[in-house]
UniProtKB/TrEMBL annotation:
Coiled coil: none annotated. InterPro entries: MlaC/ttg2D, Tgt2/MlaC_sf. Gene3D superfamilies: Tgt2/MlaC (3.10.450.710). This is ABC transporter substrate-binding protein.
Length: 216
């Protein structure tokens, strides 16, 4: 990926993408640095932040389709499709909670934006700076999900040349082929439910996501 682009060198699309994602990573840096302990003590407050700032900029449907593969995604029923999208979405949120537990003051800033020639896909390169560990570069794969409104959303993350989808897709597809889509959905839901139950019990939180009591 090319070096960081100056404002003068960026195309209008690059500038647009930079604007859409820069405020997100600025918010993440500020919120985690100032409110980590509050969020650890109040999972519902952290969920509110995720729903407000992270979810709108992530196309969970495209991520799910990439994990399952086009054939598997198209072959399942609309209800199953929505269920697996929801389960993947909650899994990504769980990763955000797990990341919060390990956060140690890192700051996030965009250093480059690359858009393909068709102006439909691209990468946002994010530098994660830390005083405790070596700096880390993350690449966020983005796609234009609404050309009329110029809306871009993330669909995958790459670290050291390996994407999240590339790591997870084989186990997802193997489960579907050997045990069916319902088993995959159930497994993801169970892992998410157990994790959220643990942090909600620990903090004695209840009332709204992710600490909504399960009705038996």
């Amino acid at each position: 990926m090319a070096g960081a682009s100056s404002a003068e060198q960026q195309t209008p699309i690059q500038k647009l993408v930079q604007q859409q994602f820069a405020s997100l990573f600025e918010d993440i840096s500020v919120q985690l640095a100032t409110d980590k302990q509050r969020y650890l003590a109040d999972p519902m407050a952290y969920q509110d932040f995720i729903d407000l700032r992270l979810r709108p900029l992530w196309d969970i449907s495209s991520t799910t389709r990439a994990l399952l593969g086009r054939h598997n995604f198209s072959a399942i029923s609309p209800l199953q499709r929505q269920a697996i999208i929801d389960a993947v979405g909650e899994t990504l949120v769980r990763y955000a909670f797990e990341g919060l537990e390990k956060y140690s003051g890192q700051q996030f800033r965009i250093v480059d934006v690359v858009i393909n020639q068709r102006a439909a896909m691209g990468w946002v390169q994010v530098l994660m700076e830390s005083t405790l560990i070596p700096d880390i570069v993350l690449d966020v794969l983005i796609k234009q999900t609404d050309p009329e409104k110029d809306i871009w959303q993330a669909v995958d993350i790459r670290f050291k040349g390996i994407t999240y989808v590339a790591v997870k897709k084989h186990s997802f597809r193997e489960t579907i082929e050997e045990q069916g889509i319902e088993t995959l959905i159930t497994d993801l839901e169970r892992k998410n439910r157990e994790y959220y139950a643990s942090i909600c019990t620990k903090t004695q939180s209840s009332g709204r996501a992710p600490c909504i009591p399960v009705v038996k």
